[in-house]
Design goal:
cAMP biosynthesis, single chain, globular, two-stranded antiparallel sheet, alpha/beta, 8 strands, four-stranded mixed sheet, adenylate cyclase activity
Length: 262
């Protein structure tokens, strides 16, 4: 079992890196800069960095290590602007992971595609910390827009889908109308920019109905470590109510974005 899981992890990382490379290759320099630096800007918080605001803003992405591009950016700040970058403390950090979802790195990506970013965070953040993190994400959206890149951030509590919590219906948020369908889209299209791997990818299709039991077995056997994985839960069966709600949402969405709705 251990060797099987290790092989799956290697394949998962290889596919994720391939999708990152494809996303960058399909876009221009501004998109590449934003795409590459967003994890760094969320991991650190400094007045000389885009997205800075006063207050106890949550910072730090679990298991994050800067790549060559990100390290070069940090080195330039330290060398030319006298900035001293302080790493967040070790351990469980506020941000579980940063992921793109939707058309990015898919056949639907075009040179004018926007970025939908899920910033998954720990459940223990209080309301003030969540508001500060949301404000920082709004500032990062403005920074990206100044470079000609449209970015939308979505803060996702790691227990949101397990507790059936939902946002409001409007803009880019489908509220409670697509609980399972939204999670399904995330699992199918997510690209990990930084943070924990997605646990659902390690569960075989024939174990979906017993998702929690299978995951607990992997933990009990020691082949997986719980704090190294993002666990948003399994995909339960789609109810008639959600199917109907999703249809209404598609009609609502088609008013402003007919091609996305299709």
């Amino acid at each position: 079992m251990y060797l099987y899981i290790e092989t799956l992890k290697q394949r998962l990382d290889a596919i994720n890196q391939l999708r990152v490379d494809r996303a960058l290759a399909a876009m221009g320099p501004a998109f590449q800069q934003v795409y590459s630096l967003l994890p760094t800007l969320l991991h650190y918080h400094h007045p000389l960095m885009p997205g800075y605001l006063d207050g106890n803003v949550p910072k730090g992405i679990c298991l994050y290590t800067p790549d060559e591009t990100q390290r070069h950016y940090l080195n330039e700040l330290e060398l030319y602007r006298g900035m001293s970058v302080q790493d967040p403390p070790k351990g469980e950090l506020p941000i579980t992971g940063v992921y793109t979802m939707g058309s990015t790195s898919s056949v639907g990506q075009s040179c004018s595609s926007d970025l939908d970013i899920w910033v998954c965070h720990q459940s223990w953040l209080d309301s003030e910390e969540r508001q500060l993190l949301q404000r920082k994400c709004s500032l990062l959206e403005s920074w990206a827009a100044s470079l000609g890149v449209e970015v939308s951030f979505f803060l996702i509590d790691e227990n949101r889908f397990r507790h059936n919590e939902s946002g409001s219906l409007g803009g880019e948020d489908c509220g409670s109308t697509q609980h399972i369908l939204l999670l399904d889209e995330f699992y199918r299209t997510a690209v990990r920019l930084a943070g924990k791997r997605i646990l659902w990818n390690m569960v075989p299709c024939d174990e979906e109905e017993h998702y929690d039991d299978y995951v607990m077995t992997l933990y009990a056997q020691g082949v997986l470590t719980p704090n190294e994985w993002l666990d948003l839960g399994g995909l339960s069966s789609l109810s008639a109510e959600e199917y109907f709600g999703a249809s209404l949402w598609q009609l609502y969405k088609s008013i402003d974005s007919p091609y996305k709705a299709v």
